[in-house]
Amino acid sequence: MFTQQRRRNRHLIPSRQLFFRERIMDPTSAVLMTFGVALLLVSWILLLIAAWQDDYAWGLFATLLPPVAYIYAFFRLEKAGQSLMVAGIGWLFVILAF
Fold this sequence. Notes:
Layout (H helix, E strand, L loop, with lengths): L1 H7 L7 H4 L7 H28 L1 H9 L1 H10 L1 H21 L1
Helix pairs in contact: 3-4, 3-5, 3-6, 4-5, 5-6
């Protein structure tokens, strides 16, 4: 009984293999991705610290709009250069994970 219903309704349920390809990440890629994202988070925190120490407005913008924080870092390399270097290493790890 159940198998007959399943055969009848088979055309209603799309095959998972046709529409969804699973990508299994190898351990090296997973580690690189994890460390890359962690470094990006650390760089943003370092950038927040530098921005808040410099000016209240920059700190607020860096908190609410993270891309603005990196624009700030390009203009204040002497204060936020370390965070840009950490972000670059983080992006390198993320790219190498693929």
